[in-house]
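BUG: 3D viewer hangs when loading the predicted structure for this chain

Environment: internal workstation, default settings.
Expected: structure renders.
Actual: progress bar stalls at 90%.

Input used:
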Amino acid sequence: MPTGSQPTAPRPERVELRVARLVRAHGLKGALKLEVYTDDPQLRFVVGREFKLQVPTDSPWYGKTLKLASIREVNSSPVAFFEGIDDRDTAETIVKAILWVEHDPETRPTEKNAWFDHELVGLTVMRDGLSVGTILRLEHFPAQDLLVISTGEAEILLPFVEVFVPQVDIAGGTVTITPPGGLFEPLEEAEGASS
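Structure tokens produced before the viewer hung:
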């Protein structure tokens, strides 16, 4: 992952992160298989953690939270038990719910030189000392993450790897890039076109 400075400027006090979806009931004792959306499950899925639920307004779970009782891996998939869900029938009533967690801005990712998506969104993208766009979002794929950069005229996907993104400066509000040839219009051509 790219190197960079740690944040010193204040960030938003309250951020909620979507971390998983309850895919299906597992077994007879209320376990639920998770589809995980976070890159940092060790940080998000700790016993006692409380999750907000995203469910339809007519669901009996609307407005409620779940507290994680335990989690384990079954056939390479995470399976969780939550307090108050003790049988398969109850587990079935909450399948497809999305789990959200409140993010503490002081919490850092467990991986070195890593950032949360919300910290990167909106940062100015710098190339050769000039602003070339803004980060709109991150796309997560098995092989690598991609930065989605808006240039004002187009959206460009840039692999989020150190060779192309050598510096992330959260405090300064910038990301420095060294993209491969052809991904962005060469700066010399852009400058020549405007003169």
